[in-house]
Amino acid sequence: MALHRFSPHHYHTAIGSHPPVLRVAPGDTIRTTTVDAGGCDASGVQVTARGNPQSGPFYVEGAEPGDTLSVRLDAIVPSRDRGYSASAVAPNVVDPDYVAALPPGRMSLWAVDAAAGVARLVDPPAALAGLALPLDPMLGCFGVAPEGGQAISTATSGPHGGNMDYRGFRAGTTAHFPVFVPGALLHVGDGHALQGDGEIVGTGIEISMDVTVTVGLLKGRRSRWPRGETEEYIFTVGNARPLDQAVQHATTEMIRWLQEDHGLDAAAAHILLGQCVAYDLGNVFDPAYTMVCKMAKRTLAQVAGGR
Amino acid sequence: MALHRFSPHHYHTAIGSHPPVLRVAPGDTIRTTTVDAGGCDASGVQVTARGNPQSGPFYVEGAEPGDTLSVRLDAIVPSRDRGYSASAVAPNVVDPDYVAALPPGRMSLWAVDAAAGVARLVDPPAALAGLALPLDPMLGCFGVAPEGGQAISTATSGPHGGNMDYRGFRAGTTAHFPVFVPGALLHVGDGHALQGDGEIVGTGIEISMDVTVTVGLLKGRRSRWPRGETEEYIFTVGNARPLDQAVQHATTEMIRWLQEDHGLDAAAAHILLGQCVAYDLGNVFDPAYTMVCKMAKRTLAQVAGGR
Amino acid sequence: MALHRFSPHHYHTAIGSHPPVLRVAPGDTIRTTTVDAGGCDASGVQVTARGNPQSGPFYVEGAEPGDTLSVRLDAIVPSRDRGYSASAVAPNVVDPDYVAALPPGRMSLWAVDAAAGVARLVDPPAALAGLALPLDPMLGCFGVAPEGGQAISTATSGPHGGNMDYRGFRAGTTAHFPVFVPGALLHVGDGHALQGDGEIVGTGIEISMDVTVTVGLLKGRRSRWPRGETEEYIFTVGNARPLDQAVQHATTEMIRWLQEDHGLDAAAAHILLGQCVAYDLGNVFDPAYTMVCKMAKRTLAQVAGGR
Amino acid sequence: MALHRFSPHHYHTAIGSHPPVLRVAPGDTIRTTTVDAGGCDASGVQVTARGNPQSGPFYVEGAEPGDTLSVRLDAIVPSRDRGYSASAVAPNVVDPDYVAALPPGRMSLWAVDAAAGVARLVDPPAALAGLALPLDPMLGCFGVAPEGGQAISTATSGPHGGNMDYRGFRAGTTAHFPVFVPGALLHVGDGHALQGDGEIVGTGIEISMDVTVTVGLLKGRRSRWPRGETEEYIFTVGNARPLDQAVQHATTEMIRWLQEDHGLDAAAAHILLGQCVAYDLGNVFDPAYTMVCKMAKRTLAQVAGGR
After folding, report:
1. Domains in chain C, ordered, with CATH?
2. Rounded to a whole number, what is the distance in Å from the CA of D242 to chain B's nearest CA?
3. Mind listing the pLDDT tens digit for each residue in D101-131?
4. Model ipTM?
5. Nearest C-alpha neighbor of A26 from the set A7, A6, A10, A4
């Protein structure tokens, strides 16, 4: 149950089997920092190349292929008072014949007041002068080393996690990742002060973060896609294009989870999911899109064997 | 502001320019009944062929191509105490290599207690014996006659609405449809006592309904896809495959709506949408899938010109 | 074996159960005319609204749901000397971030010399002054009335055929369509003097045609998607978005055809198809895309039971 | 113009920046061997783990990011007399509701007679006893190290090439790849004695090969996706899901190529492509699908400036 403080000195824009920067035990807490998507740190200084640079990787003792790593997001706190966002919905998120009507893709600067929990545009268009958005800090991109010796760009996502841009990855949520390599090799980065669903402009409010996570090991529990839980839900994550396929991955993973770990047979799992499932949308900007399949814990609590 | 009571004698399983059964004025309220998706009425008797049979169409005086029809869902109340659902997640909603593991696609019978607001399985698998789900009645399939002389199966959806299976189409919501033909020709049907997101088993809890709607006419306001509003949100609806394209339709329609009717220029609309948009999932079972793009009214209220 | 000459006086831009203009017997030949996609006839006069107007429908005596209609394309001959095409690849056919770079979507005029079998641009950009393209006349849109009382826009396609824009639908090819309504109700239109794969600019060289077809009835032979044969291949057609789904429809239909009518068991059909299948691309412009799955007759001839 | 003979001792199942096994100059020829997709060599002995193991990488002197590497496929010759294939169309290639009807996924053994140029099933189902398929040897998976420090599984494909399973990659074809890292780092593997379009069963006839390639360097010529040429065509390759997106990548790359290197302005390039483009289907089995966009050289030869 140690607390590790770690200040990164270099970063990775591909999630892979890089040499670990720290070895921790299941149950340990890591307090570290992340630069923003553009590689700028808490001082606003660019310290590494852009592209969702990741802190880590962190090696979790005892983690082996076939296990599941849990990552409780204890705290995600903006570490400076300026964030930025893109300002135009991305060409792949609008109708093809509307693309030519998109406004120029300038960056917007936001004043981020972590104490007050509010973000305001620094130089707003007139109509948005009064806009004060509640912060909802999250990690856009994090995950573990993928299988088969791959190193996967932080521009995209997969079974190993990565650039999922799911708003549910906020403090209080616990994420689960399949372990593909010894030590799992956890990477974290790409903090957003807040974000709309889908990250449809290609960014949230991008900002450096102070991040605290506690890792755990679900020994021998096999998962195929990222999973997680919040106070209200358990959830599974599918990452693919088209979104239909992300739905398929997330739904299949939830069916398996309900049957393997929540005490339901196939008939019960399917009936329950059919009438009670909920979906959230992660990223629809990146090469792989993200869909999240959720089941309410209060519903599971009604179910014999459900946990 | 008349109240029309209408008891249907025949039904349509393609939404098109059928002879209207009733002519109403903007502001009028229609109280009618719908059979369930299988064509069974409040007595459980099959009175028409299966396939989301629609009551109507209702002709709205003054509605012309280029207008938008509003349909306030005043009440959607189950009219009997038995509903049914499919019991297995559909093959197109799971990974292709998981399809062979799907359980048999039997129907489940549900006891629907509209007074208590609860549905329970009549013959549950053991694990679900204690399951009591809160009702959330909605219309799965409704819409207006499509353009160009088309008649479109109630198995699918499009710019005219149709089989969207969006849980947000509950009492209290107002739906908007583009008007493609004189009188708009509103069809309603396919009530669900409740439904999971996506209608992933291919049904909600299917049941006959007593339905009350109030129609309105947004004269000269052009829309291209269904829209609507709830107490908390305005929303737009895209219907297409793959889901990516449904996202594109819904998002583009929201951008247009924000600019055309909510007083935002392109720069403001895009920045606002980028960090504040939310999406809900409608149907991922039918030939066209459904995605809903939402903007919170409380956010719009912060915006100069926003309504 | 009668020959029917039919001059259309009105046209349809939705394929559905319209009143037939002519009743023919299986084995009969129909010689008719088609207007171009814009509704202009052999004189270049616009005689009906644009949108792939269809001649017909033709009622085939004895055709009933569950049968398959065959349509041998005997002759497709341009009936005037001018055709037109769009000049820019469509926004949905290029990368979303390339759309803004597309050139303006002007129309190009082509001189079509049916006797010489060549098309030349009337007012070419300099680089194309020497371009002389061999004609390859085809029908872009034809098919039969769809099931369930639907009327489907000639802008799109489905199990009933429609706007498939497949270059293989040239003279010498026989198309097969599932029969969904009594008489099948054959529609024909949308001739192209020639076309690139995919109809990626949204048109071929659009032109009015003299069309001769001979209908046949495969009594009691069930099909689910369009099929056909050329001198070298048998083929099946899937119409859907995304293209992946069109591949699925066409491939599944071919597997069924090989097993139901070509004397192969499942093991043989799958092995054969796996190493010998070929695909052609139809339309990637319309709401539904088209993929064609082919099997060479010379390969089938090697196979016991294969026809 | 040296000839290098190279016998691999280890193999890679992710294409990335591995240490090069050989350094060659532009114009040099490499004669090497590839194991089959399952890791078995010319003796049928499994010498490495399965999964399209790659020989190489080969470092091409002078190749730098922003250049294009050409790889002329001089010879691809089966190096043993037994190959194998999967025997059932893959679940993702048929309709979801047909998956349960797929036959068991056994392997088929083929006798491959490279001298006679024919493959025959070793233990055929009765109907296929007479089947003798002409060989058409090709490389299923080859490419260069991807950008950004990635290592990408040989199960899939991308801008760097990879598992494209395109039948056009046969002897006589020259492939082009964007260079992302110094030396390009060419990998080759996954030979097929023959293959159906789409690799719809997940394999061709998998076999070890003797492979001869000649590399060249198009210095300063930027490409974004694989390209190539045969005697009759130039072509571009898009790798993505859904296929619609692969079409977009390949088509956009062809437009760029026509404008950047074939002397056409936008107007001419679009008109020409619109009426003359052809598409071939690569893989529809892997995580990324492959579509090939082609332009006939005989057509380009008619065009001023066209090469």
Report:
1. 3-81+136-218 (2.60.120.580), 87-134 (no CATH), 227-300 (3.10.28.20)
2. 9
3. 999 978 999 999 999 999 999 999 999 999 9
4. 0.97
5. A4
